[in-house]
Amino acid sequence: MIYRDFHRENEIGNDVIKKYSDILPKELISIWKKYGTGSMMNGFLKVVNPDEYIEILRESFADYEGVVPVMLTAFGDIITINSEGRVDIIYYRYGYYSVIATGWEMFEVFAGDSFMNERMFKNILYNAAVEKHGRVEFEECFGYVPLLALGGNETVDNLKKIKTKEHIEVIIEMVGIISDMKSIIM
């Protein structure tokens, strides 16, 4: 179960729950009611209020129509659910997005499996980053400085704690909006 070490940040208001209850999977709505927003998986995954990230998603992702941001990774990647229930991840650090599950239940199973978790989230450096820099706060992520797209190296030494929204904005300003889809063959 991916929620076993959930650390609550805030509750999600009834207005937000009502707004998305006919759009998002019932399982996710139940998580919102039970836990609210917060982090889990040793701080790597964050359940977010979609309304706080929908605007930046629209500004940064070419395929944003019918897509709802529901989670973030500690590397500033946004996990979304589309109108058919498909779960995607926008890897801002790499400049593309991928389908990671065909439904929410499958996503939860994959996220709870260490092999699949590593493949989906590309989180191999996370524990080393936490050891070197400490855990990120809820509004922060680890960002590569310099950005990978600008020649930065994918090393723990190049990771810095950065505000998530500002980091995404810098990536988009420097690299452009995310429009490429790549398979993460499992």
From TrEMBL:
Protein name in UniProt: GAD-like protein
All copies of domain T6SS immunity protein Tdi1 C-terminal, residue ranges: 119-174
GAD-related domain residues: 9-84
Pfam families linked: GAD-like, T6SS_Tdi1_C
